[in-house]
Amino acid sequence: MENEFAGLTAIITGAGSGIGLEVAKGLKQRGVNVFGFDINQGDMGFVATFIKCDIGDASSVDAAFAEFNKVSNKLDVLVNNAGIGSLTTVEKETDEVWHKVLNVNVVGTARVSRLAIPLLRQSKHAAIVNTASVAAIDGIPNRAAYSASKGAILALTLAMATDHLPDGIRVNAVNPGTTDTPWVKRLLDQADNAKVAKIALEARQPMGRLVSPSEIANAIIFLASPAQASITGTSLNIDGGLHSLRIPK
Ligand SMILES: NC(=O)c1ccc[n+]([C@@H]2O[C@H](COP(=O)([O-])OP(=O)(O)OC[C@H]3O[C@@H](n4cnc5c(N)ncnc54)[C@H](O)[C@@H]3O)[C@@H](O)[C@H]2O)c1
After folding, report:
1. Is 160 contained in some domain?
2. What CATH number corresponds to the domain at position 104?
3. What pLDDT digit, counting tens, does each position of 33-87 carry?
4. For site-directed labelling of 167, which of 103, 191, 228, 232 has its Cα 20 to 30 A away?
5. Does the pTM of the predicted model rise above 0.90?
6. What is the dihedral of CA 97, 154, 162, 12, to 10 degrees?
7. Centroid of ligand 1 to alpha carbon of 83 (angstroms)
8. Has 44 been annotated as catalytic?
């Protein structure tokens, strides 16, 4: 079978850990030249070329693309995956945290895309995949700023897909449910009882288990694939049925 990814080049933000790392592994296995833009190299080791980049800082993003442009003359796939969380209600959230979360999650996605789009325009297989969340489409407690940022990413996905349709750049998003990554481990570590908190998270999933990072990565890779040349402006839920199913208890 033909490998439609062979010879492509990708940038993945947040490739040092969790979902981004699994995307990097999956694309690397398919013959993609993978660059990981992250504040930390994390575990990307031999999987991706690490380029230090804080997507929350315009000068850091500029410097990262300057470095990327020295070693690559093309870009086919951008995965805007890096993000940060915040755990509280709108009543308690501070302006400082609102600005930080929106700056990294929303403006960060736009900032990286701004510099990637001129490169993607040159590709015959250009695709952007943004990582949103079920928090964008379902009310989840104590996630006010985070949910708003992920809702903005879905709206941005549609705006970008429309604006860059004539450029041949497809733009889609994924909405992961609770996924078993270091992110969730950090969350559980903050709970009074991590074991009980994990059982509660699993129980919230209709399938009774967390989503695996490779399941999210497979969906991102599907949306990024040149074989899916007609998919744009879509978001895919990978959430164990959380969004759509109502299971009587
Ligand atoms: N894990 C979940 O349950 C879940 C659910 C829905 C959505 N998501 C989204 O998936 C994405 C990845 O999450 P994960 O669970 O893999 O988390 P993770 O903590 O395992 O990995 C996040 C990566 O992003 C990097 N990063 C953080 N801030 C950055 C910045 N300013 N610039 C560049 N890199 C930065 C980190 O260094 C890390 O390598 C996030 O956007 C998150 O909102 C996760």
Report:
1. yes
2. 3.40.50.720
3. 999 999 999 999 999 999 999 999 999 999 999 999 999 999 999 999 999 999 9
4. 103
5. yes
6. 80
7. 5
8. no
